[in-house]
Amino acid sequence: xxxxxxxxxxxxxxxxxxxxxxxxxxxxxxxxxxxxxxxxxxxxxxxxxxxxxxxxxxxxxxxxxxxxxxxxxxxxxxxxxxxxxxxxxxxxxxxxxxxxxxxxxxxxxxxxxxxxxxxxxxxxxxxxxxxxxxxxxxxxxxxxxxxxxxxxxxxxxxxxxxxxxxxxxxxxxxxxxxxxxxxxxxxxxxxxxxxxxxxxxxxxxxxxxxxxxxxxxxxxxxxxxxxxxxxxxxxxxxxxxxxxxxxxxxxxxxxxxxxxxxxxxxxxxxxxxxxxxxxxxxxxxxxxxxxxxxxxxxxxxxxxxxxxxxxxxxxxxxxxxxxxxxxxxxxxxxxxxxxxxxxxxxxxxxxxxxxxxxxxxxxxxxxxxxxxxxxxxxxxxxxxxxxxxxxxxxxxxxxxxxxxxxxxxxxxxxxxxxxxxxxxxxxxxxxxxxxxxxxxxxxxxxxxxxxxxxxxxxxxxxxxxxxxxxxxxxxxxxxxxxxxxxxxxxxxxxxxxxxxxxxxxxxxxxxxxxxxxxxxxxxxxxxxxxxxxxxxxxxxxxxxxxxxxxxxxxxxxxxxxxxxxxxxxxxxxxxxxxxxxxxxxxxxxxxxxxxxxxxxxxxxxxxxxxxxxxxxxxxxxxxxxxxxxxxxxxxx
Length: 636
Known about the structure:
Elements (H helix, E strand, L loop, with lengths): L1 E3 L3 E5 L5 E5 L5 E5 L8 E6 L6 E6 L4 E5 L10 E6 L6 E6 L8 E6 L3 E6 L7 E6 L4 E7 L3 E6 L3 E5 L4 E4 L11 E3 L6 E6 L3 E6 L5 E6 L1 H6 L26 E5 L2 E5 L4 E5 L4 E6 L4 E6 L3 E7 L5 E7 L3 H21 L10 H13 L5 H13 L5 H139 L5 H20 L16 E5 L24 E5 L9 H11 L23
């Protein structure tokens, strides 16, 4: 048994082993020999929506759902479900066409039982859908809405939406006849009938709409070899009574019918057979979306898997040409004459196919014509083929020249466009460069302007700071001048006051001396001044500071007072209305040393003061009557 998907090809053996191949490289990906699958493999089916899940029907009527884990070589396969409800050999398995991820499969057996298995359900994973009166031959489904069951005697249509089952047609049949939905017409189905007939029925009403009789087209169309190196039409077979339409499989826009001896390709749209092959010796056939895989038994009883692709006629003829050319070159390279080449008829057949398919490849037609001219004694038919190839070659050469001219013109146009594009690009680059330079110049000027403004601002700030400092210095100078002026005025005033005081002191001293020497009584004013001077002298003794009214403290140093005590001979008598002065009282002689003048005192003033200090102390006079005179210290 075999099964195929878009990526993998799976082959099952009688030993229960599974061989998994990569479709593109034909490399074997994995050999599965699971101890839980000991029975020979009867049927295989890969889930099209999840190619990693494989359904296996064994010869013991058991269906396994196997997780292959092909993406991870280190992970072994795993059995997802084991279904044992079939009591007869499983004859057909079909995966549901639901969206990706579905694990739902339909299966039919030789007793006519049809089951549905859903591995994703938690309970009741398997349910019986229908029971036919004869063995199930084939199953087909459409959009998860309808299920088509083809048994040996009848075709049944199960509608899941309407939840009912109906027979297709009224006439029974007896044989392994299949059925499928129409590949191109919506709501139609096809059912194989005896005598190479094909029913077309409605999938809505289950009524037969038409019967296609394919017997005549089968006799007209020549048989084609399929599994040889050169699959070309062979001789016509007038009678082939054993050929019948059996199972039906959709393949693109056509339908493939097959049994163990024949493969027939049917076009249901046109109601005829496209081609048929009797060299297949089919064991099993699988149809995928783009290829047909045939499990074939050779005459030596070897089992081989063939892949059949559907190609358009020109592409098909080109494939045959490549094989012919390879074999012919090998033959000529070995030194064998062209007359011994057994491929002469195949060359002319393929040349006819190239002509009928209107091949436009100059190289293929030219090489084909050269090979055909090597053959001698051409028949009329072969000459006609050669002439047709020559005519087609001339057309191809003309077309090639036209194409070359167009290509040359296009190449020149592209070169011109590329040149213009380069010029535009160069111009654009030049403009961009100029723009960059302008921007750089503008930026540079802007920076210079900012720098100039910053310098001007700095200079202005420095000038303002200089002016501020000058104003401050000027203000300080002005204040200093004002202070000096005030000090000078104060000094002049003080000097004047000192001079006046010195004059008063000198005058007072002169008067005192004169009074002392004359022995006359002091005048009232002199007496008052004398009393005031005595009070100031007492104050001076107590505080040690001279009572100067208009001189600030600290301008003069302390004065030296020399008081010579005189013994009193008696008490003073008070006068009426004032002080009474006693006669013959002892008098005091007070010498006041003038205070030292500050440093600002002029030299003349210092000399005058020094002259006063150098005067001798007045000796105690001898007076008949003692008079106590109080000096006036108010000015000092």
